[in-house]
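Field log, afternoon session.

UNIT: design team B
ACTIVITY: writing a sequence onto a fixed backbone
BACKBONE:
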């Protein structure tokens, strides 16, 4: 089954923002950024910059016709800094010129005088000074206060998880040009066209129908373009609207890495209580989220951390508190997993430390506490169609885990410098936007006179194969060749009020809407076919392989002839359909409800080898049994799982974001920020769990984008186990990423 998007990529035919043909007179924009992490703006002088030949205009906050505000959940973020700068890289002015080089030259000449103010970069410091984005939130289940005295073991500890750069192939970018009627059209590399539309309309003081956003595809997002693409689209929109000229803004790679938000770093405290048999009785955790200078999506991300704080385990007594801390770093944002990985890392660290204290393998504790059917999560939802134990048991059986353990033990017994470690990593990840209202989607399907099909949805193709899945849905329902089906660009005029392509929900939501729209048209076509064939039994009419069947007998009526005839009979060959995920809700006053349509489960066995002389390591293999539901495109699903696993391993091991004492990013190039490459990537085996049909997903499938990312967490603990094989007295640290430098320093730490 060919994936036509991939074929276009390989042949270099795919178009992105920078490839867009635009009207004559294109101008180029660049941005003047704050060089100070926190300060009061005294003055902004643009005189020298305006005199540069080729400069068309320079815009500051005073030139904004509407609101100077791009905040979504909380309106606390200015498009262009007016009085206060809050982080290094905050936009202050937009320079528009005949070329990008001219614009950059002029931007360097803008003189911004700032009076420095005290800055905060650490989340715990921010919490101590009550510098918070929102009020803290706490999930309570059972009674932790009364449980500690009943436990045989009570272990406490602290974890740190670092930031992560999105490193999408296409940087933040937008092209905007004026259209008749005083509106604008935006070509944006965004995961959320409606957000771009709404915020730009707010900035320009326009109604939303005057702002059209169009997205053909984007060159990767990983959450980094769910909210933050809006900044660059709105700035470009401001310039184009004011100048009445087309304007392009493409961030250079280094600039993108310096000024955009990352995965949230977390600092966390945990307390876990267990019985001698490994049963977990109680768990308390406090998460300190480093949100950066403004809210962005931090409150929603923090919420999902709470939702996933117990991972795949049933724990009868839980108290989880989350605090979103305001610091003077660029606003951190969505990233694959959306807060889930940060929460899961803490519970896995707590289990690892408990196993160390108890003198047993952490896998014994993990297996002892896996979820059962109808077990309740701390937020009130029950586990349905729970496949946690199924995936664990199959992984043990399929990959011969006892043999792996024996092989690792033999290797360690016969090698002094090199040591191996293994870790088992179960996952449980909820699927839906936790903001219930966002779980909706629309689809618009047209069948043209020649039998070809046009399909419009809110789904953004960003390399994950959603366009191919949507074509596959329409092709299966109509029983026609996929080559007859075209997925249109995502456009706010055709499909309005869209939810972002995020939360692993694009195929589910847009696929369900597509299914409904296609079935609406299919019913009309069957009625038409019955009329043509003079048959009364509509149930006997089928379309298979572009031919009409009656009572399973092929007729002379083809798909093409059926469509032509239906059009002549004035049958509606279009359908707009709307889908909303049923039976989900959450009460934030009680912190209870059913926020997820379903959960995805899985188990991975991760093996690593550490060179204990140099501190370097190799992640050897990741062997997975994953709950895909009933996958209807195994090639795409396998690719998504493999990519997520490698990205998760990168976050846990080598991807380290560093800042200097002034809040400036030091890791802003490929030479200083290390990411997984083909040499880093382990052998990956993925087994599709059988008999796992999902009644809540499109074609009984399950979401795939985010859940496999969590398997990467197992890489951290595989390396830790290898380190402990070399130094049994090693005191475990839970500070990710576990870089080779950290490995070496901790292997030989004296205390």
């Amino acid at each position: 089954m060919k994936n036509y998007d991939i074929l276009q990529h390989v042949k270099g035919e795919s178009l992105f923002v920078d490839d867009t043909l635009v009207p004559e007179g294109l101008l180029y924009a660049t941005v003047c950024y704050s060089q100070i992490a926190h300060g009061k703006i005294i003055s902004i002088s643009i005189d020298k910059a305006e005199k540069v030949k080729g400069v068309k205009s320079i815009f500051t906050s005073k030139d904004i016709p509407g609101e100077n505000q791009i905040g979504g959940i909380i309106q606390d973020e200015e498009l262009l800094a007016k009085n206060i700068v809050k982080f290094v890289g905050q936009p202050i002015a937009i320079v528009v010129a005949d070329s990008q080089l001219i614009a950059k030259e002029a931007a360097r000449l803008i003189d911004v005088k700032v009076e420095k103010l005290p800055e905060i970069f650490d989340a715990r410091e921010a919490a101590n000074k009550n510098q918070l984005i929102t009020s803290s939130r706490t999930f309570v289940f059972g009674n932790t206060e009364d449980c500690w005295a009943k436990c045989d073991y009570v272990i406490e500890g602290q974890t740190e998880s670092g930031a992560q750069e999105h490193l999408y192939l296409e940087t933040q970018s937008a092209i905007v040009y004026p259209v008749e009627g005083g509106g604008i059209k935006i070509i944006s590399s965004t995961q959320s066209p409606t957000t771009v539309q709404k915020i730009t309309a707010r900035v320009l003081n326009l109604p939303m129908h005057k702002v059209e956003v169009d997205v053909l595809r984007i060159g990767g997002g990983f959450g980094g373009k769910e909210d933050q693409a809006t900044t660059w689209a709105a700035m470009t929109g401001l310039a184009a609207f004011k100048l009445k000229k087309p304007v392009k803004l493409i961030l250079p790679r280094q600039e993108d890495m310096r000024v955009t938000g990352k995965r949230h770093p977390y600092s966390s405290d945990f307390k876990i209580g267990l019985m001698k048999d490994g049963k977990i009785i109680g768990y308390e955790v406090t998460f300190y989220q480093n949100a950066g200078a403004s809210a962005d999506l931090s409150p929603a991300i923090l919420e999902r951390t709470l939702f996933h704080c117990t991972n795949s385990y049933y724990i009868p007594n839980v108290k989880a508190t989350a605090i979103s801390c305001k610091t003077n770093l660029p606003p951190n944002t969505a990233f694959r997993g959306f807060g889930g990985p940060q929460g899961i890392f803490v519970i896995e660290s707590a289990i690892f430390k408990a196993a160390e204290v108890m003198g047993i393998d952490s896998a014994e504790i993990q297996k002892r506490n896996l979820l059962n059917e109808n077990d309740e999560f701390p937020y009130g939802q029950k586990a349905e169609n729970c496949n946690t134990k199924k995936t664990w048991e199959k992984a043990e059986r399929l990959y011969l885990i006892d043999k792996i353990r024996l092989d690792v033990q033999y290797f360690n017994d016969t090698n002094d410098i090199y040591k191996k470690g293994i870790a088992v990593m179960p996952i449980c990840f909820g699927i839906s936007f936790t903001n219930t209202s966002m779980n909706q989607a629309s689809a618009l399907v047209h069948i043209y006179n020649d039998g070809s099909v046009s399909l419009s949805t809110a789904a953004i193709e960003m390399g994950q194969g959603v366009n191919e899945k949507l074509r596959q849905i329409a092709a299966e329902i109509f029983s026609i060749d996929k080559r007859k089906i075209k997925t249109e660009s995502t456009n706010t005029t055709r499909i309005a009020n869209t939810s972002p392509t995020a939360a692993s929900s694009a195929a589910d939501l847009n696929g369900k809407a597509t299914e409904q729209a296609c079935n609406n048209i299919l019913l009309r076509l069957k009625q038409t076919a019955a009329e043509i064939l003079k048959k009364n039994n509509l149930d006997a009419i089928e379309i298979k392989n572009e031919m009409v069947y009656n009572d399973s007998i092929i007729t002379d009526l083809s798909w093409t002839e059926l469509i032509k005839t239906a059009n002549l009979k004035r049958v509606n060959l279009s359908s707009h359909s709307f889908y909303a995920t049923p039976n989900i809700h959450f009460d934030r006053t009680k912190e209870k409800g059913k926020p997820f349509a379903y959960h995805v489960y899985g188990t991975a066995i991760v093996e690593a080898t550490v060179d204990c002389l140099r501190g370097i390591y190799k992640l050897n293999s990741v062997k997975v049994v994953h709950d895909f539901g009933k996958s209807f495109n195994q090639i795409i699903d396998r690719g998504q799982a493999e990519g997520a696993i490698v990205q998760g391993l990168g976050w846990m091991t080598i991807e380290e974001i560093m800042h200097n004492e002034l809040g400036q990013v030091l890791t802003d190039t490929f030479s200083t920020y290390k990411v997984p490459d083909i040499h880093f990537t382990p052998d990956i085996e993925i087994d599709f769990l059988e008999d796992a049909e999902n009644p809540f997903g499109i074609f009984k499938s399950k979401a795939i984008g985010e859940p496999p990312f969590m398997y990467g967490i197992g890489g951290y603990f595989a390396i830790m186990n290898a380190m402990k094989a070399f130094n049994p007295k090693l005191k475990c640290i839970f500070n990710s990423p576990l870089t080779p430098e950290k490995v070496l320093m901790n292997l030989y730490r004296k205390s």
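LOG NOTE: The CA atoms of residues 56 and 656 lie 40 Å apart.
NEXT ACTIVITY: expression trials, pending approval
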